[in-house]
């Protein structure tokens, strides 16, 4: 285990040990005295502080308003909330934690550990990175609907259940496992926001607990196809003038014994949803040519993505797990990453396309 992952794990274990202490006081609140928080938005504040925002009250007949405080530690936000507002903040209904991009680039381990240490925090709360001014978006949305946070949660829940590869949905439990597991690095979805819109942009890749790269567009599609969901409801290949649908993949990886070469074979089964190119897909020869073009395009895009991941020295695809050969000494994460960043990568696609009906 690398020094970075070891220190991250030690900090988690120490804080968990402290959190297990028993308190002689029993919390006994009336429903009217509790204000359940559904989300926290955390960004960089002034003088190395954290700026934390949410909506209050999330339930009740009163009009919702934004609560914001600058704090040194996350738990201080709850204390300030309780002093400034007559209801007491409770995290039992926390469903989403949104972290500003710049803060995520500095590291999120303290945020993750604090959430994990709170027994009232649900393990399945959604994590996401936000680019842009989310507070302006909140102010704008409150004028139109006070339930926008509920609608956002329902959207995430829908895409998680549908599992259609349209976006990376990650909860606290999954992020924790990715962060503290050998040969693994976390990833979460990224959303771009302004005053009027809150849209999915792609997938944020982490090196240990620090955000190092954002995958968008084609890179995000390839990531979904070869790792996250291994399924895409819609796969756009604009350079070939074709849109594929219901693309399912099977990925096979093979490392040589010296860990100097990776062979990745990807089998894809998909249908043609739309084609605007100049090939006659009723002609078998031209149809086979299109299949070869799709394979070449996917191989090119996948190889470029893997090279970019090698450059940031991260392993969100958990390829290092393939280096664990039987009856051999386990490799450290540090040693694996040295192999990984210099590894030769060969990607081979085998694509089975279901032809479009009434094509040109």
Describe what this molecule looks like in 3D.
The N and C termini lie far apart (56 Å). Mean pLDDT is 84; it is low at 16-35. The chain contains 10 helices and 15 strands. The protein has 2 domains: 1-12 and 29-215, no CATH class; 230-360, 2-Layer Sandwich (GMP Synthetase, Chain A, domain 3). Helix 1 runs parallel beside helix 4 (109-117) and helix 8 (217-228) crosses helix 9. The chain has helices at 3-19, 74-84, 101-106, 109-117, 134-142, 148-162, 172-180, 217-228, 284-311, 333-341, and strands spanning 34-36, 39-44, 50-56, 65-71, 88-90, 96-100, 126-131, 170-171, 187-193, 198-207, 210-216, 231-237, 242-255, 261-275, 344-354. A hairpin with an 8-residue loop joins strand 3 and strand 4 (65-71). The strands form 3 sheets. Strands 2, 3, 4, 6, 7, 8, 9, 10 and 11 form a 9-stranded mixed sheet that branches. 35% of the residues lie in helices and 31% in strands. The protein is of the alpha/beta class and 360 residues long.
Q: Which regions contain 5 or more consecutive residues with pLDDT less than 50?
A: 16-35
Structural class: alpha/beta
- State Rg: 23 Å
Helix count, DSSP H or I runs of 4 or more residues: 10
Portion in helices = 25-40%
State the separation between the terminal residues, measured CA to CA.
56 Å
Largest sheet: 9 strands, mixed
Strand content: 25-35%
The counted number of beta strands is 15
Average predicted confidence as pLDDT: 84
What shape does the CA trace take? globular
The assembly state of the depicted protein chains is single chain
Q: What is the H/E string?
A: HEEEEHEEHHEHHEHEEEHEEEHHE
- Tally of structural domains: 2
Domain Spore germination GerAC-like C-terminal: 201-354
Protein name: Spore gernimation protein
InterPro entries: GerAC_N, Spore_GerAC-like, Spore_GerAC-like_C, Spore_GerAC_C_sf
Keywords: Germination, Lipoprotein, Membrane, Palmitate, Signal
């Amino acid at each position: 285990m690398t020094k970075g992952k070891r220190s991250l794990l030690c900090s988690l274990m120490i804080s968990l040990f402290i959190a297990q202490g028993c308190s002689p006081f029993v919390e006994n609140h009336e429903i009217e005295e509790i204000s359940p928080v559904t989300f926290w938005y955390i960004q960089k504040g002034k003088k190395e502080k954290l700026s934390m925002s949410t909506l209050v009250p999330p339930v009740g007949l009163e009009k919702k308003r934004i609560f914001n405080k600058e704090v040194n530690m996350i738990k201080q936000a709850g204390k300030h909330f309780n002093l400034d507002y007559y209801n007491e903040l409770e995290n039992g209904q926390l469903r989403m934690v949104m972290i500003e991009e710049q803060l995520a680039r500095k590291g999120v381990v303290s945020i993750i550990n604090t959430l994990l240490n709170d027994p009232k925090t649900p393990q399945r709360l959604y994590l996401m990175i936000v680019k842009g001014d989310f507070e302006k978006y909140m102010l704008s949305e409150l004028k139109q609907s006070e339930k926008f946070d509920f609608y956002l949660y329902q959207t995430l829940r829908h895409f998680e259940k549908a599992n259609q590869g349209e976006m990376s949905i990650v909860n606290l439990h999954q992020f924790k496992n990715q962060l503290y597991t050998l040969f693994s690095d976390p990833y979460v979805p990224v959303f771009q926001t302004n005053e009027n819109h809150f849209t999915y942009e792609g997938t944020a890749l982490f090196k240990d607990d620090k955000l190092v790269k954002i995958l968008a567009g084609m890179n995000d599609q390839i990531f979904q196809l070869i790792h996250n969901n291994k399924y895409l409801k819609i796969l756009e290949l604009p350079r070939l003038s074709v849109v594929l649908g219901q693309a399912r993949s099977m990925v096979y990886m093979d490392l040589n014994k010296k860990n100097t070469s990776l062979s990745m074979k990807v089998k894809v089964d998909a249908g043609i949803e739309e084609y605007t190119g100049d090939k006659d897909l009723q002609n078998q020869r031209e149809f086979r040519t299109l299949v070869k073009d799709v394979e070449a395009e996917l191989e090119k895009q996948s190889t470029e993505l893997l090279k970019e991941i090698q450059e940031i020295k991260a392993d969100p695809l958990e390829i290092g797990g393939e280096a664990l050969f039987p009856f051999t000494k386990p490799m450290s994460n540090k040693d694996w990453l040295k192999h990984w960043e210099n590894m030769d990568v060969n990607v081979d696609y085998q694509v089975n396309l279901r032809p479009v009906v009434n094509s040109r």
